[in-house]
Amino acid sequence: MVIVADIINALKNTVDPEIGLNIVDLGLIYGINISNDKDIDIKITMTSPMCPVTSIILADVQLRAESIQGVGTVNIDLVWDPAWSPEMITEEARLGLQ
Predict the structure, then answer these.
(1) N or C terminus of the chain with fewer C-beta within 10 Å?
(2) Structural domain containing residue 10
(3) Could you read off the pLDDT of 28-47 as tens digits, one per residue?
């Protein structure tokens, strides 16, 4: 059985190469849903609709999610609402940017 914590831990290894922080701490993950104890739907955004590394990040998210033992189908939904803002960065990550 796959749990949300497994997915979050895996996605913490996906780093936005322009910012140098993982996508979880950046606040780019808007939602994770698990159905049938194995199929995963991930809602994700980017820091900007013009983000030049979107395809790289999405491919890495797909690869990392699929690598979790017991995972079935992985669906990624790139969304723009609500728009990402710097306030979505975790406090810990924000301190690392200073």
Answers:
(1) C
(2) 4-83
(3) 999 999 999 899 999 999 99
**Residue 93 falls within a domain, yes or no?**
no
In angstroms, the CA 62 to CA 76 distance is 7
Q: Catalogue the E-assigned strands of the chain.
A: 29-35, 39-44, 74-78
92 part of a folded domain? no
The pair phi, psi for residue 97, each rounded to 5°, is: -80, -20
Structure tokens at 62: 């797909």
Give pLDDT tens digits for 41-74: 999 999 999 999 999 999 999 999 999 999 999 9
Global pTM reads 0.93
CATH number for the domain including 34? 3.30.300.130
Bond from prior residue into 49 cis (ω within 30 degrees of 0) = no
- Conformation bin of residue 37: beta by default, left when phi > 0, alpha when psi is -120 to 50: left
| Residues near 9 by beta carbon (within 8 Å), at least 6 away in sequence | none
